[in-house]
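Thread: Newbie trying to understand structure tokens

Hi all, I'm a second-year student working on a class project, and my supervisor (Dr. K.) asked me to get a predicted structure for one chain before our next meeting. I've only ever worked with sequences, so writing a 3D structure as a token string is new to me. If someone could post the tokens and maybe explain what I'm looking at, I'd be very grateful. Here's the chain:
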Amino acid sequence: MGLVRLFRGKVSAFKWLYPGMKVKRWLALLLVGVTILALGFAYLLRSIYETWTFPSIVYYLTLQFISRELRAVLFGAIGLGAIIVAVLQLNRSLLAAFLPPGQEKVVDIVYRHRFQSNRGPKIVAIGGGTGLSTLLRGLKEYSSNIVAILTVADDGGSSGRIREHLGMPPPGDFRNCIVALANDESMVTRLFQYRFGGDDELVGHSFGNLFIAAMTGITGNFERAVLESSRVLAVRGQILPSTLEDVTLCAEVVEKNAQGERICQVEGESQIPQPGRMIQRVYLKPDGARAYPGALRAILEADLIVIGPGSLYTSIIPNLLIAEIARAIQIAPAPKVYICNAATQLGETEGFSVERHIETLQRYLGKVFLHVLVNNNFNVEVPADWAVSLVRREAAESQSHPDYRIEEADLVDPVNPWRHHSQKLASRLMKLYESLREGKKRSERHLLAEQSEPLTLKEDKLS
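---
Reply by user tm_fold:
Sure, no problem. This is what the structure looks like when written as tokens:
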């Protein structure tokens, strides 16, 4: 183990010399400065050597019994080693107050800042709930340019209580996404997910929700609070609200009872998914909420736009009910991918197939998602008391659809087969993105070739 730690330490030290770290230039300047200083000191010593008479012991201390060339190499190596040790130890001493024990090394922090802070395609993921945080946890290994756009219609649990008492957007989904995009699973990361127990007013609240609420009070606005909370956990990407207005998610549902069926209106996101109900449509109160400008900018500048996974009616569609968000998605030039849920949701999408998920999404957004990523691994152990089922296709696998293309892959978590596996999902999504990008490049090259062909023919005729 000691040898392993020594090897890792040496590899970490060599990381300072990686191209792009912007450290070697200053080390070189330091060596030049020390060399010039040593040269001036050498002139002084030469003058003293020529005018003073030294005792015989100096002859041996200055190694005059060997050649001058060998003495120069030996003293140079000793001096360079002393400089390196001094710089490293000085660096460690000065930063000790800012990097408590257990924190990552300075070289790793610099390396991440230089090479990972602006790495990968610009990916916009739209949704909410557990599904979105699952996707983000996998995507952060492929890109640091991730923007998560979340609904603010949540009104249940700890988030709902904070929203009601403090008049701020619900922090729960934002907390989950911050933790999912965090650089590592540190103690602070686990602290954000800690939920209070007991029987007092704190019961059910998570520390992260309270932290964001406190940060909102300190900074004066919610978006600033999310940004500062993200910095605490060294988040790779941004988490933005779809709107900052106080909106309520409402639904028109069909309820079944002994007398038959009746249509009724339900207000509140937490009140909508109920067994025995069939959702007809969802809408926001008040109507006409304005989109958060940063979310619109991210959508229009994206390299890839992803919707889902997540609760269809209560996490995904609420974002699309904001007209400016929906319009930005429609006109954005980036490829758009819908990730269908792995399992149906009780009281929300019972009995839904892949095609019905897509048709529901199209009613609110139009036919803009040309690619749909779905799970095709049904060889998993499903609990006997499950009230939901895995989402399957209605059509045969070989049958294509004119409005979209379905991409199938094993995406589920074998331990929790009703949920996606972060790494599987992110890996398949990035493979799809790379294939779409390569296809676009081939199309552009083909178009350029077609545009240049008439000019070539014209030149041939003139010749």
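A couple of things are worth pointing out once you decode it. Residues 28 and 404 are 57 Å apart (CA to CA). Confidence is low (pLDDT under 50) at residues 1-11, 455-463. Feel free to ask follow-ups in this thread.
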